[in-house]
Structure formats: structure tokens, C-alpha cells
Design goal:
The chain has about 525 residues and is of the alpha+beta class. α9 runs antiparallel to α14. The radius of gyration is 25 Å and the shape is elongated. It starts with 19 loop residues before the first helix and ends with a strand.
Length: about 525
């Protein structure tokens, strides 16, 4: 169990590996990601060999990431509404079937550029449908003190795979061809299915009273739209992803500029992965000495250096500086992922993660296409140079648009202390909309402070399901104020009070009540 690890273990970047469930699933993800990167290299190098233009080559990255724009939000709802373990098992199994079909087509010499792009899209779709669930189970596997370390190790499963997968794919491509590369990818998904089947996960709370799909989707979007801490995380992720996508999309063109074989291209990608793995050791030290905002800014500068190297420098300097870019990549993603996981409450964690994936991967997909279009007439070097300049702008923007105070530190533990209201009838969960009116008696000298405190309560109401919020002062009694808001249904209000209010929400309401005389009175009106 995660609780067997002491809090002092958080000092070690590898402390989560002491937890057996985390360790097994970590290796399963690593193997699956190695297979995915092997297939990516196989697909991109096929297009290089076919003399496809920069735009078509960049479309591999777009085809892989575009599903995030289409399926991230539904995937988040599914991960919060269904058993996440079963969802991951089925998603990995479908990925294995798709990768197996691609293997057969490659073995029959029936590959075309559009076949490659189509299968890349399908695999991207299954990855998108499971990504929120993968992110959401991380806090279940480790104690809160180790979430930062587990997030960094989660980055290793991607970036360590980036170090091993491309190099391995380059060798196998030269020795055995694309069918073997694609077949290894299919087997990697089978390994993930076996590991997930082994995991004995405790029952997921809340499934017996799960929301319908559409209301759950609205609740997730509403939460993110009303959570200023989360919105800033999303903004920082988009600002970084847009220029950073150029390097990933145009690196095959860099390999062509340097007259490299598939093995050489694998080394370029491998250098990024090596840098990310090195970052796992350096990042905990950096985060103890530097703020997260400083880490984000430095990471953007280092990634710009690697991007410039890919545009203009010879092979060896490029290889070295791409290691720095890989370190920068893991630095940014670790800070943002940990901040997200620590700031989202459990009830909306998958949906919040899906919005993050939508923003980050969607920006990467659009950026990849855009940089490919820029590279077609102006050349890849010019596109990469422009992306590097934008990365420097992103680094400087941290001063004006930092991660906000409270990110990753607010109390998101859900507390359920709801006293069932005494109503004249027993409402059905679908009854509504419901108007909630709460009256407060506030001394005249405390009204201003009460209004200020209630602005925070407003944010809490909106995040957890309320809308049309207002605070009104009586024209007949100067000490009487009324809070008013609506919820979509009685079931939604019940969820708000029993499943969604966190410790921080209770603190904000308690702070407002310090200005109130007596007990508030609450009334409920049904349409």
C-alpha cells in the first residue's frame, strides 16, 4: 500500500518505486511508450524514405496528437464515471489490435503515407481515451508527499522511452524492417494489459452514484472554467507547447539535413530522452532551490537552445544540446503535471486532466501542422529559428503570467458533512433546476468584509456545480444579505454537498461565516 512509505521518502526521486503497484504499472507504461516511440520513428522514417515533404512528415506528429482535440473531454468523463482499471485494460487491448493490424499491412508491403497517418491517428485516439485515467490513478498509487516524485517518474516513462525507443527502432529498421518495429509496439500494449490485470485496485468510490455523460461533461468544463489556479496551469502548458512542437515535428527534417540514416535519427530522439532521464535526478535538487516558475522559465530557454541546434549546428553539437532540451522538456512537464494533480480534487481529477491533455496535446498538434506549413516554403531551419525566438518570449512571460500562489498546496480533500434539508416533499434526483437561497444576518460594520469573503465562496459554488450566483442586500433590513445560486438538479446539489466540497471550500465558507451573526437559513425552490 502507498501508506507504507514514510513522508521522508519524498526526498528521493525514486521513492515511489518502493511501492509495488506503482513499480509494476510504471514498467508497463515504460514498455508501452518504448513501443509507441519505435512505431513513431518507423512511421516518420518511412515518409523520409518515401521523399515526402516537410508538411507530410510533420503530419505524423499532428495525426498522433489531433485525437486529443476530439476525444480528451469525453475521455475525462469516462475516466471519472467508469472503473479506471477496466478502462485502461480495454484501451490497451484495443491499441494492441490496431498496432497488430498495422504490422500485418506492413508485412504485406501495402503501406502508403496515408495508411501510416490513419493508423497513427487511431493509436493516438486510444492513447487519448486512456491518458486521463493513467494520470488520475497516480495519486491512488502513492501518498501525497510523493506525487511530485511520481509525476517526474511518469515523465521518465515517456522520455526514457524516447531515449531507448528511437535508437532501438533505428537499429531494427536497418536490420529487420518496419513490420518488426510495429509488431514490438503491439506486444508492448499486451504487456500493459497483463500489468493492469495484475493490479488489485480498491473499488473506485462514487461509481454507484455516477453522473450521466452530458452533465458530467458540463461539470468538468465548469470546474476548470471557474478554477483560476487550473486555468493558469493550462495557459502555461499552451504557451510552451506551441513553439516546442516545432522541434518534435521537424526533427526528421533535421536528420535529413545532416544526411543521417534511421539509426542517426534515432540517436537525435534518443538524446532528448537521455536529457529527460538526467532531469529526473537534477530536477528534485533544482526544485528545492528554485521556484516552479523559475524552473519553467529556465526550461523554455534550454529548449530554445536545443531548437536552434537542430536548425543550424552539425551532428555532434546538436546531439549534445538536444540532451539539454530533453532536460528542459521533463522540467516543464513535471512541474505542470504535479501542479495539476495536486490542485485538482478527486471527483473531477480525470476531467481536469483531460482538459490539460486537450490544451497541451491539441496545441502540439496544431503547432506541428503550423510549423510544417512554415517549413515548406521557408525551410525547416527558418521555422525552427522562429520557434526558438518564441520560446525565449515564453520564458520571459513567466514574470507576467506565473503559476499562481496556492497552486499544488490548497486542501483538495473532499469533505462530506451535509445535513439533509427538511423539505416538504422528497425530491427525485432529476428534479430541477433548483434555486438555493441562503440568508445571512451580518452586522453593518462587517458587510464589506463579508462581501469580500463571499467572492471566494462564489468561486467555490461555481466550481462545484452552481450558476447564476448573486449576493443581495435587503432593502428592508440593512443587516440581512441573501446568497442565491442555481444548480441543474437536486442530484447535482446533493453531489455538490457530499462529493465535491473540499477542505479549501469549507475554509472559504467558514471565513465568510465569521462575519455572520447567528445561523444562516437556507431555502430551496424547484422549477
Amino acid at each position: 500500500m502507498a501508506t507504507t512509505v514514510s513522508p521522508t521518502s519524498s526526498a528521493s526521486a525514486w521513492a515511489p518505486m518502493a511501492i509495488s503497484a506503482f513499480r509494476v504499472l510504471w514498467f508497463a507504461q515504460l514498455g508501452s511508450n518504448i513501443g509507441t516511440w519505435m512505431q513513431t520513428v518507423g512511421a516518420q522514417w518511412y515518409l523520409v524514405d518515401a521523399a515526402a515533404g516537410a508538411t507530410v512528415i510533420a503530419l505524423v506528429q499532428t495525426a498522433s496528437l489531433a485525437p486529443a482535440m476530439l476525444f480528451s473531454l469525453p475521455a475525462g468523463v469516462l475516466a471519472d464515471s467508469l472503473d479506471r482499471r477496466k478502462l485502461l485494460i480495454w484501451g490497451s487491448a484495443v491499441s494492441a489490435v490496431i498496432a497488430g493490424a498495422l504490422t500485418v499491412i506492413a508485412a504485406l508491403n501495402a503501406l502508403t503515407p496515408w495508411t501510416i497517418l490513419a493508423f497513427t491517428f487511431f493509436l493516438g485516439a486510444t492513447s487519448t481515451l486512456t491518458s486521463p485515467a493513467w494520470q488520475a490513478i497516480q495519486p491512488e498509487l502513492v501518498p501525497r508527499a510523493l506525487i511530485g516524485a511520481s509525476s517526474a517518474l511518469g515523465g521518465v516513462t515517456v522520455n526514457g522511452a524516447r531515449a531507448v525507443g528511437p535508437a532501438l527502432a533505428g537499429v531494427i529498421l536497418s536490420l529487420a524492417g518496419a513490420p518488426v518495429v510495429f509488431g514490438i509496439n503491439a506486444l508492448s500494449f499486451v504487456g500493459a494489459v497483463i500489468a493492469l490485470w495484475w493490479w488489485k485496485r480498491p473499488p473506485q468510490p462514487g461509481l454507484a452514484d455516477r453522473e450521466a455523460f452530458a452533465p458530467a461533461l458540463r461539470a468538468g468544463v465548469r470546474y476548470v472554467a471557474s478554477a483560476h489556479l487550473i486555468r493558469r496551469i493550462l495557459l502555461r502548458s499552451a504557451l510552451f507547447a506551441l513553439p516546442a512542437s516545432a522541434l518534435w515535428a521537424l526533427l526528421p527534417v533535421t536528420a535529413s539535413r545532416l544526411s543521417l540514416s534511421s539509426s542517426g535519427y534515432g540517436l537525435l530522439l534518443g538524446a532528448l530522452g537521455v536529457g529527460a532521464v538526467v532531469g529526473i535526478f537534477l530536477l528534485p535538487v533544482a526544485r528545492r532551490r528554485l521556484s516552479d516558475n523559475v524552473v519553467i522559465a529556465i526550461s523554455a530557454v534550454l529548449f530554445a537552445v536545443g531548437t536552434v541546434a537542430a536548425a543550424f549546428l552539425p551532428f555532434v553539437p546538436t546531439l549534445v544540446l538536444l540532451v539539454l532540451a530533453g532536460l528542459a522538456w521533463i522540467g516543464t512537464l513535471t512541474v505542470l503535471n504535479a501542479a495539476l494533480q495536486l490542485t485538482l480534487p478527486q471527483w473531477v481529477r480525470s476531467r481536469g486532466a483531460s482538459v490539460y491533455i486537450l490544451v497541451f496535446m491539441g496545441t502540439m498538434a496544431v503547432g506541428s501542422l503550423g510549423w510544417g506549413l512554415v517549413a515548406q516554403p521557408f525551410g525547416a531551419s527558418a521555422a525552427l529559428a522562429a520557434a526558438a525566438v518564441l520560446l525565449l518570449v515564453v520564458a520571459s512571460s513567466v514574470r507576467l503570467l506565473p503559476l499562481l500562489a496556492g497552486t499544488g498546496t490548497v486542501d483538495r480533500t473532499v469533505t462530506a458533512t451535509w445535513a439533509t434539508p427538511a423539505l416538504v416533499f422528497d425530491p427525485d434526483p432529476t428534479d430541477g433546476p433548483v434555486l438555493i437561497q441562503i440568508s445571512y444576518t451580518v452586522p453593518a460594520e462587517s458587510v464589506s468584509d463579508f462581501r469580500t469573503a463571499m467572492r471566494l465562496v462564489e468561486g467555490s459554488r461555481r466550481r462545484t456545480g452552481g450558476y447564476r450566483w448573486g449576493l443581495f442586500r435587503s432593502g428592508d433590513d440593512q443587516n440581512l444579505l441573501m446568497e442565491s445560486f442555481m444548480v441543474a438538479s437536486w442530484g447535482e446539489y446533493r453531489r455538490q454537498q457530499t462529493q465535491r466540497l473540499t477542505g479549501r471550500d469549507r475554509e472559504m465558507r467558514a471565513a465568510a461565516l465569521t462575519h455572520v451573526s447567528g445561523q444562516p437559513t437556507e431555502e430551496h425552490y424547484f422549477v
